[in-house]
Recover the amino acids of this structure.
């Protein structure tokens, strides 16, 4: 009389399958339990809930790494306290100390994958009648695979262009690097970069970064994920002995969080002690993204035995085989308002390796595609003096659409089959 | 065993792919073209701004002439003449000026006091007036620079861009800038932007970080001092001093964007009816007090029958203002206990 529920379909014992003998099958059957499925879904919901709450205090990418792309996460009870304070009127003094260990997204993902595959191995048989269920499960696996590909292989960067200027590199504003640039010839620099995580680790351990390729040894005395620079008062002791930092002080700021309406990116800074290869003290230097971004870019000159270097902390760069020149940037507004109607970058793309040299236009909702990357109009520089393009490569971009389509088709098939069965019975 | 084998076969590619993709980052060396994007094509300046700021005790006056370079050139001499003819009858009196021959004056509205229009030119000199201190000189110079697409200056670089002139006993700060005028963008990069004016009056209201910072504030009370139940703001804490009922000590956290140190000290000076300080005054008369949470800048001010000991402590999430105020006779002896209180300030 009634439609067969999805889970009842799954639970039905296989009719034609020969039982696999022994402990392995017994283990698989345990792993395939629907009770485990329900528990895992419940854990997923709780994880998503706390991951969302955590964005009140943390950057969205930190939350993704800590909660969803980890095996285990320690959820601070502070989040529960905060939730109770905001939604249930608990006093601000109400604070539950400590944290609770909880399975991370990676662990839950794998547990669901094993649970699902075990169910297929032990309970589900391949037949037209079950094609809908198989499609739904296949779509879910495809969806997880899409997330995996995006996580591992998708790259989002930006390219900043001043009107009339050109660029052949993109930057990631989630990662920084300490760069030493030594002029090689009139057009080229020899570049040595120390990645941000290495600076952070060196600041924690107190051990210097000593690599023979570097022009000097780097001891990180302080590393701030997010900082602010202020002009130093005259009676405050100088913060550094060399470079731009002599007139500045560096103040630590909280890392940006997922709900911050103002600052969109962390602006790291570090205080580094540099020592020449022969042991000569080269002094303490302040390096910060701020020096590169909002003031006149100030490469700090450092004289070492290996020659003159320019030292800076900058967003991580990736150089490309093509060059983009911003010929004109247009910012149009609706008449009589300041509401943007169109942001448009007229560019010239030059890629000598594959013989490309063409003008093109990138505007809102009209990206350019080149070498597997998509270039979106992202932002305008202050005073419309230039343009920022978002450069995205995501080999798994199609999978979410495909998986949704497969799941939808699976659901339609499953309910269609059940409907026709029901109608046959009614006839 | 077939189901088990097929299950393993399905899982294995996932395991292999998952564990093989997390690379490690290390030091890298490569050759790269010089930063071509910084060598932008030559920007041909097309706009010139002649501007001046006059800081009076209770108001700030601005004069500004902006336009195409060629059109501004013949108006430079009249602009300077207007500027040099400005007079104030008293500290609170409005500005008076002499109009060049052939020019017309139109009365302004709002902040604009007047518009001075030259003959045979579409340009004009705008005269504006704001109550109090409308931002620091640096903030205003950088505002004018931004309009022309020029980089912001630092305090130490200000002298190179600014000319100070004494006009009838009043200091006039002048700039002469050329650049390429751009329309204001409403789509800014993900960096903190600048307001048209730096915070000149009261700092903006405390925000959540300040409240969080307040939760961790701790200090040791000097003998005879006690914490009051009185609340000024959500995050502020108030102390009372035994035997000195007219003296009040407050701890107030504000957002780190709440103006710079000099502007906040001048806010206190204004409350006491004192003339604003310049940076040199603050450098000379301010004292750095080491607290357990970092150095605090202490100022000792007296005016209008009140004494004010104020300390400013910059924290990553908030700026803390610690203030003792009261009649000089009661407040002066409390300087040493106040400093010992400051030294004990910490954040747990």
């Amino acid at each position: 009389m009634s439609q067969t529920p999805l889970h009842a379909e799954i639970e039905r014992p296989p009719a034609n399958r020969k039982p696999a003998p022994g402990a392995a099958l017994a283990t698989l059957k345990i792993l395939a339990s629907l009770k485990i499925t329900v528990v895992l879904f419940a854990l997923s919901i709780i994880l998503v809930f706390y991951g969302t709450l955590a964005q009140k205090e943390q950057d969205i990418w930190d939350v993704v790494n800590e909660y969803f792309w980890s095996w285990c996460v320690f959820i601070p009870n502070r989040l529960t306290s905060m939730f109770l304070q905001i939604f249930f009127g608990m006093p601000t003094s109400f604070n539950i100390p400590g944290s609770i260990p909880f399975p991370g997204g990676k662990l839950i993902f794998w547990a669901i994958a094993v649970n699902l595959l075990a169910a297929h191995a032990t309970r589900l048989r391949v037949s037209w009648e079950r094609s809908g269920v198989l499609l739904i499960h296949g779509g879910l696996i495809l969806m997880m695979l899409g997330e995996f590909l995006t996580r591992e292989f998708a790259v989002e960067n930006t390219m900043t262009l001043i009107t009339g200027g050109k660029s052949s590199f993109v930057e990631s504003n989630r990662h920084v690097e300490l760069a030493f640039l030594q002029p090689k010839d009139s057009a080229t620099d020899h570049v040595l970069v120390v990645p941000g995580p290495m600076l952070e680790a060196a600041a924690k351990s107190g051990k210097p970064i000593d690599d023979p390729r570097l022009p000097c040894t780097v001891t990180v005395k302080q590393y701030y994920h997010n900082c602010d620079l202020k002009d130093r008062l005259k009676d405050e002791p100088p913060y550094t002995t060399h470079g731009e930092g002599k007139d500045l002080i560096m103040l630590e700021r909280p890392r940006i969080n997922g709900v911050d309406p103002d600052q969109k990116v962390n602006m790291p800074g570090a205080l580094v002690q540099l020592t020449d290869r022969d042991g000569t003290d080269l002094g303490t230097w302040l390096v910060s993204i701020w020096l590169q971004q909002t003031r006149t870019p100030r490469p700090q000159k450092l004289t070492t035995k290996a020659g003159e270097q320019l030292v800076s902390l900058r967003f991580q760069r990736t150089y490309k085989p093509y060059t983009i020149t911003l010929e004109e940037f247009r910012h149009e507004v609706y008449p009589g308002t300041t509401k943007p109607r169109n942001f448009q970058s007229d560019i010239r793309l030059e890629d000598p390796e594959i013989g490309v040299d063409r003008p093109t236009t990138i505007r809102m909702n009209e990206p350019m595609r080149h070498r597997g990357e998509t270039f979106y109009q992202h932002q305008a520089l202050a005073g419309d003096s230039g343009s920022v393009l978002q450069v995205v490569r995501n080999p798994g971009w199609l999978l979410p659409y495909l998986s949704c389509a497969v799941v939808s088709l699976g659901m339609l098939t499953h309910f269609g089959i059940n409907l026709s069965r029901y109608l046959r019975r009614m006839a | 065993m077939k189901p088990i084998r097929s299950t393993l076969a399905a899982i294995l590619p996932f395991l292999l792919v998952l564990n093989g993709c997390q690379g490690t980052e290390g030091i890298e060396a490569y050759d790269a073209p010089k930063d071509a994007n910084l060598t932008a094509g030559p920007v041909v300046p097309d706009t010139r701004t002649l501007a001046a700021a006059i800081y009076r005790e209770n108001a700030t006056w601005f004069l500004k002439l902006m336009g195409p370079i060629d059109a501004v050139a013949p108006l430079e001499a009249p602009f300077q003449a207007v500027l040099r003819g400005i007079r104030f009858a008293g500290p609170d009196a409005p500005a008076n000026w002499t109009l060049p021959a052939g020019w017309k004056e139109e009365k302004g509205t709002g902040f604009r006091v007047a518009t001075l229009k030259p003959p045979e030119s579409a340009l004009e000199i705008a005269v504006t007036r704001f109550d109090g201190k409308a931002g620091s000189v640096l903030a205003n110079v950088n505002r004018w620079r931004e309009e022309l697409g020029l980089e912001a200056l630092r305090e130490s670089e200000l002298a190179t861009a600014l000319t100070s002139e004494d006009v009838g006993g009043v200091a006039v700060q002048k700039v002469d800038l050329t650049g390429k005028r751009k329309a204001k963008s409403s789509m800014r990069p993900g960096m903190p932007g600048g307001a048209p004016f730096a915070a000149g009056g009261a700092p903006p209201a405390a925000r959540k970080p300040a409240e969080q910072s307040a939760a961790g504030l701790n200090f040791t009370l000097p003998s005879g001092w006690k914490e009051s139940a009185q609340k000024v703001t959500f995050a502020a804490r108030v102390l009372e001093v035994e035997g000195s009922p007219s003296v009040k000590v407050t701890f107030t956290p504000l957002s780190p964007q709440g103006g710079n140190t000099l502007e906040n000290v001048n806010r206190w000076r204004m409350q006491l009816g004192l003339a604003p300080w310049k940076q040199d005054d603050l450098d000379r008369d301010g004292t750095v007090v080491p607290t357990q949470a970092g150095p605090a800048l202490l100022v000792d001010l007296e005016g209008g029958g009140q004494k004010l000991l104020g300390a400013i402590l910059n924290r990553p999430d908030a700026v803390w203002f610690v203030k003792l105020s009261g009649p000089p006779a009661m407040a002066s002896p409390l300087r040493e206990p106040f400093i010992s209180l400051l030294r004990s300030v910490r954040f747990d």
Notes: Chain B has two domains: 47-179, 208-347. Residues 2-19 of chain B form the longest helix (18 residues).
